Amino acid sequence: MTDDRIVPVTMPKWGLSMQLGKITGWIVTEGDEVSVGDELADIETDKIAGTLEAADAGTVRRIIARVGEDVPVSGTIALIAPAGVSDADLETAAEQARAVIDAGVPDEAEGEPAVETAEVGGRQVRYVGAGRDGDVVLLVHGYGGDRNSWLFLQAPMAGKHRVYTLDLPGHGTSSKDVGDGSVGLLADAVIGVLDAIGADRAHLAGHSLGGVVALTAAARDPARIRSLTLIAPAGFGPEINAGYLRGFADAATRRELKPVVGQLFADESLVTRQVVDDLLAYKRIDGVDEALHTLLGTLLSPDGQTQGIDAAAVAAAIGGAVPVTVVWGTEDRIIPSAQAEAVAGAAVHLIDGAGHMPHMERPAEVQAAIEEAIAGAV
Amino acid sequence: MARNITYREALNEALAQEMERDESVIVMGEDNAGGEGAPGDQDAWGGVLGVTKGLYHKFPGRVLDTPISESAFIGAAIGAATAGMRPVAELMFVDFMGVCFDQIYNQAAKFRYMFGGKAVTPVVIRTMYGAGLRAAAQHSQCLYPLFTHIPGLKVVLPATPYDAKGMLIQAIRDNDPVMFFEHKALYDTSGPVPEESYTVPFGEADVVREGGDVTIVTLGRMVHTSLDAAAQLAAGGVQCEVVDLRTTSPLDEDTVLESVEGTGRLVVVDEAHPRCSIATDISALVAQKAFGALQAPIEMVTAPHTPVPFSSALEDRYIPDAQRIVNAVKTVTGWTR
Predict the structure, then answer these.
(1) Which among A176, A284, A287 has CB closest to B200?
(2) Which of A47, A258, A286, A288 is best to mutate for the B interface (most B CBs within 10 A)?
(3) Which of A169, A173, B100, B204 is the least crowded, having the fewest Cβ atoms under 10 Å away?
(4) pLDDT, tens digit, for every residue of B36-53?
(5) Superfamily grouping for domain B2-194
(6) A253 interfacial to chain B (CB closer than 8 Å)
(7) How far apart are CA A27 and CA A128, in angstroms?
(8) Which entry of B57, B139, B183, B273 is annotated as an active-site residue?
(9) The complex's ipTM?
(10) CA distance A32 to chain B (A)
């Protein structure tokens, strides 16, 4: 019997295809006290490198995974426990964890969930679901992103909810035609995916352009949406980094794109070559250039300097019918976090030191905010 | 949506999608459909490489079998290009360039220049190169340095299925003559390729592995051999940055120079003969423009200056392998003044 006060720190699942992760460095050592959100270790997958944050508070009593070794997803890499837990119990738990790591990826490990397609207005909208039970949560990415931008949230949240991500028209693997490029057309895709899932009620979370898209979808039928989490949403003030938007739409080479994408993050070292290459591969697909430039005309007002979307009016139309949570990074260089004040009646979480991509930069805190919004919904 | 397909399938998909999009795209070459005198069995082959398989019935009248006369059909393709078509001609083995070289280097390559920019020649010449298939001295050469030497030609060598599709679509849409090199040993390799049409621009090298100790500049099939060597070296603590040139004309000088400025050491890996080659070209570039960054003499790993042997034992020794690359990297890391 192991002591149930022992809390395992496990290898996260970053992206639905991830099966193995490698610790590239431990930030904590045995004996350290950690609180929720503290950085524990640097982890690398074949797709991305990131930092694992503590989901539980306590004392790091055992570090199990060695630097450089491959650990299967959900394998225990460290043990957190209070001082009262005996060394013998810790040793037993550590041995069990070591056996799991040594066994590698189990044969019955779940493969990647299938990509599904909803037909919306003659366009193919792709979406992917994870999780078997609980409320439907649909995550809506921003301008130039795709469903993979939720890789730090979708699998971790799928333990408690049915978590869906979609590719908006013009993005990812969905049809690249965006018609007039209006927010309403993108909101149709969100509603279309909810219909395809068969979700009578759902929670929505949207980032940046995806925030105002989720808001607009909610305004169509407020009774259907149980909660709304807006992460650095577009449309709540005039100010926006128009240079970033134009730079992203126009960049044709890695050399042009990398510094542009760097502006998304507070810490530009997060922009790895893989991130830039994936974006370039997307931008080079037929129809994407046109889609991005059409959407640019939606995001920016005719003067080309300020925001062209008025989300505040949409929020006002919803009134208090849907509980709204706002998450914003204080170091956002695309849309200033001060615009959080313009979201009437919202619960506001400012994430200190995060840029425009808090769901990639500080996923544990964004996940906590979304979970809180879900828990608070009626 | 990306799925794993072979290099051969990626090329076929690029041709099919461009033929669908643009009816001026035609395909021609020896046995591209099925060969003369094979009634009822058209499209059986899709070329000896199998790349054009399935296109004959999908695009009636636009997949042309030609006589075994490279001078005629390469010339016809170039002529059709100047008259508004976008032909993709298949020169089965690049070793046969000798009989159609005038059409390529002295005609197609010169039209834009000699007609004051008023003429365009959007022809693609796909061709197979490289050793390793026991095809002997007349069917195993690389020869891309010869085309790289000629102003007016674009020379591309995709190493992966992703690049094969994107670069072939780019080549077809390009208004200049493009020499498109496919290594025999790559056709059955597979990798992720989007279903949609996309392009990979010319003149942008790909850093396929990052590392701070040594830069390996390479291309074509040797990209994979270099990656094998880099993986072995990483186990011993040496981190190589592997640069896949992807196109030799235009050449992405900046990526090569930036990498060498970061590592201070260069190994060039090229399957072609060592003289007047891509290896010597890259070495000269770095010696001239990044001399101050170099901490060791440049190493070149190439085939020897001999024809490709037919003897399998000799051919295996002829082609640069991972061990030779490892040795070259150790030479540049171990070098002291």
Answers:
(1) A284
(2) A286
(3) B204
(4) 555 545 666 677 788 998
(5) Thiamin diphosphate (ThDP)-binding fold, Pyr/PP domains (3.40.50.970)
(6) yes
(7) 33
(8) B139
(9) 0.87
(10) 30
